[in-house]
Amino acid sequence: MMKLTFARTICFSTGKKLSFSAFCFPLLGFFSVAAYFPALAQGAGRLVWLGTMGAQSSWVADVSDDGQVVVGWITVKKGRGKQDYAFRWDKGIMRQLEGIGENESQALAVSANGSIIAGWTRDSMGQAQMCIWENGSFRMLNVPAGQQGMVSSISPDARVIVGNVMVAGKWRAVRWVNGQLRDLGSLGGDESLAFAVSATGRVIVGWARASDGKWYAFRWEQGTMRNLGTFAKAPSIARSVSADGRVVVGGATTVDRHRHAFRWENHTLTDLGTLGGKHSEARAVSADGQVVVGWAMTEEGEKHAFRWTQQRGMEDLNEMYAHLLTDGSILTVAIALSPDARFIVGNGWNAKTGRQEAFWLDTQGRTGVPSPREGNQQDRFITFDPASWLLKIRWNAQHPLSVCVTIFDVLGRIVDSRQLWSVIPGQSPIQIPILPMPQGWYWCAVKIGDQLTVHPFFVSR
Length: 461
Fold this sequence. Notes:
The chain is mainly beta. 3% of the residues lie in helices and 57% in strands. Strands 1, 2, 3, 34, 35, 37 and 38 form a seven-stranded antiparallel sheet that branches.
């Protein structure tokens, strides 16, 4: 089976210089492409800092399937302390979600279409309660009187809700369906916490105390909670699960007492490593289980957001999208991603505002850093479909433009080239078939009018 793996995207235009520090693929082809197209510009991807609505900081928790709705909370100073308030970010606009008066709240999960949000809020007695925001309305879920609870995840259709309820001073993982709460049990101890549910609603993962008093990652299915194992008979935690429930990711303690990100599949726990430091943890996984994101420590001891794939291993998002972070901002942790892994949301340091803020990253499509649109500015969206070998181009321009597509191999030799003259705006997207190629690295140069974007990618079988 042939697969396409994308590395970085580089755009060309007059007056820019290239930084090679983040590149780890063959450069000979690049020099040939650079000679063919001598001017260089900023790379692909689109990064948006969500802001804080004037608060001290913002923190993200989840993202909708299309990547356009993000939920989380802002943190404000309250006297000598702090207080959180749930928010919904929709296509660039952040709004606070109404709770019970001015009481604290957090939004922790969102449905596939972004219409239903779940989390918790404090009631009039100051206790945390499971709650749902839907179509502008707010309601609390039924839990036994006097108990506290919070929602941590919901299935895509929001029919299955998972979270945690405090019983006799102990937290218990629960599954909420049709108004009924079900205690998921534990691993022999007296406490458990649920963090994620599969798309089918059948598999739930989290953290539970065992009879030895330690906490271990668990996978619950059809009434049975199972220990996922550890690297060294030490604590572990499960943070996310694939759509079908077959892949689980999280963190586990190693023999040297370091926390490492793991990926569990077929009863096997795989250590995903770090970015050169001691610790890491996986926070989310794509629907197919092939892409994992989270945080990892660098060799310098800094906490950076990562993306892991089987083909490329663990990569620092700060290096992969360095062209979007030229102001000194840092992506510290990736918390969630869309099912197709295109959109990643997390938390970081926004150097422009000097605050901890939630971020939204579109890993493909639009090129460059977002800025106010001018009358003649192009809105470009360029992707490959590896299943059909189609290059798909979408843009918004006021005048007819020519489109030139050129594929180079690792030695810089042209292996395919297409020229489309005077493509009329409004006819996009257009689809250009690309010839199947042998395994290896390639560069795809797409020139729309006078703007050129270069996509490096890897073909594997």
